[in-house]
Design goal:
Pdz3 Domain, single chain, alpha+beta, 6 helices, five-stranded antiparallel beta sheet, 2 domains
C-alpha cells in the first residue's frame, strides 16, 4: 500500500455475513459502502449505520490486489462474543517444545486445553511459556495464546511453526496471527 489505511481482518466467523460475502483472514478492508476506511473504529461506525439485510460493496486488499465483495448485513447471532480467558487456566499449562528464537515454549492444542482456555477452535499451536527477555514477550505474547498463522501460512503443528519461523526473518519481523478467548489479532515479533 502506498498509504497505509484500512482495517486488517484477523478473524472470520463461520456463518457470519463476512464469511458469506467472501471476506478472508488477512484481507485489509479499504472501502465499505463507498466510504474509504482508515481504521477499525471507522469501519465499526460505518457498519453500525447499515440496515439489516442491506447488501453493501466491500473493497479489500488481498495479496496486493483490490477485490470487491458484496456483504449482506445480518443480526449478530447469540453467543457471537466469546467469554473472557480464565487467567488461572493459562498458569496451569504444562511445558512444551522450546522455540528459542521466539523465546517461547509451545505445545499442540488439545480439545481439553481449548475448552479450558475458552478457545472455540481445534487447530493451532499453544504458547505454554514465554521467556521474559525474548522477542515474543516484547511483542506482548503470553502463555495461553494460540498461534494460528505465521505470515500467510497456517500453523497447525509444532513442526509447522518451527518450519515457518526458519523460513521467515526475525530481523525483519514475523507476522503472527494469535487467538485468545477474546478474539484474534496480528502481532509482529522482531529480534
Amino acid at each position: 500500500m502506498t498509504t497505509p489505511h484500512g482495517a486488517l481482518v484477523t478473524e472470520v466467523r463461520p456463518g457470519s455475513p463476512a464469511e458469506k460475502g467472501g471476506v478472508k483472514i488477512g484481507d485489509v478492508i479499504t472501502q465499505y459502502a463507498g466510504s474509504t476506511i482508515h481504521d477499525v473504529r471507522q469501519l465499526s461506525a460505518v457498519v453500525a449505520r447499515t440496515g439489516l439485510n442491506a447488501k453493501e460493496p466491500v473493497v479489500v486488499l488481498r495479496d496486493g490486489k483490490e477485490v470487491t465483495l458484496e456483504v449482506a448485513m445480518a443480526e449478530m447471532p447469540e453467543g457471537f462474543r466469546t467469554a473472557k480467558r480464565d487467567t488461572d487456566s493459562a498458569e496451569s499449562l504444562e511445558h512444551g517444545t522450546s522455540v528459542k528464537s521466539l523465546g517461547v515454549e509451545v505445545a499442540p492444542l488439545t480439545a481439553d486445553k481449548a475448552d479450558q482456555l475458552g478457545l472455540k477452535v481445534k487447530e493451532g499451536v499453544l504458547i505454554v511459556a514465554v521467556d521474559d527477555d525474548g522477542p515474543a514477550a516484547k511483542a506482548g505474547l503470553q502463555a495461553g495464546m494460540l498461534i494460528e498463522r505465521i505470515g500467510q501460512k497456517p500453523v497447525r503443528t509444532v513442526a509447522e511453526l518451527e518450519s515457518a519461523v526458519k523460513e521467515g526473518s526475525l530481523a525483519k519481523g514475523l507476522l503472527l496471527l494469535v487467538r485468545t478467548a477474546e478474539g484474534s489479532r496480528f502481532v509482529v515479533v522482531k529480534e
